Predict the structure.
Amino acid sequence: MPDTIKLLKTRRSVKPREMSGPGPSPAELDTILTIGARVPDHGKLAPWRFIVFEGDGRLRAGEIIASVFARKNPQATEAELAVEKKRLADAPLVIGIVSIIKPHPKVPAFEQELSAGASAMNIVTAATALGYGAAWLTGWFSSDRDVLEGFGLKPNEKLVGLIHIGRPTKPNEDRPRPVLSEIVTRF
Ligand SMILES: Cc1cc2nc3c(=O)[nH]c(=O)nc-3n(C[C@H](O)[C@H](O)[C@H](O)COP(=O)(O)O)c2cc1C
């Protein structure tokens, strides 16, 4: 079986808490981001951009998440706030994929969002191909405009997700997959 097909047939998400460092080198990160920007894109609008969270940046992002959580949940316990602070702290590298909707006469917002989803998936696949584990995660804060503003997103931008990337620390069982006969029809 060609290597690429084998990779695509066996790829699994890895939970961030089951990741360790070191994360991708600068050259590997460059490769991952380049592949993220190499996706089908109707109208060549590049309706996406990427935010790299590494080192301290992951913890500063967690502080923003926790402070918004505390403001909106005045009863929050210290334990709950600690969880929010650690949202980006497990994986050595987290990449945020931002969808930017650009007004266009022929390319609807939906198609631009799909292109951003393709970027996210390309980033997951590229990281996996380089030997890392990757997980595409969201969570309440990924659609909270106050958190997103803290991450530097403008009102016309959405967070497609955070791709957590690191070394897998344990083997990963596959999960059940859809049965093709239930999802494929012939016209
Ligand atoms: C847009 C999007 C957001 C997701 N957010 C979460 C999440 O917040 N938490 C979670 O456990 N899985 C989330 N997932 C699912 C995981 O990325 C992953 O697909 C799932 O754990 C199954 O693993 P697999 O990639 O090995 O099939 C999300 C997937 C997508 C496409």
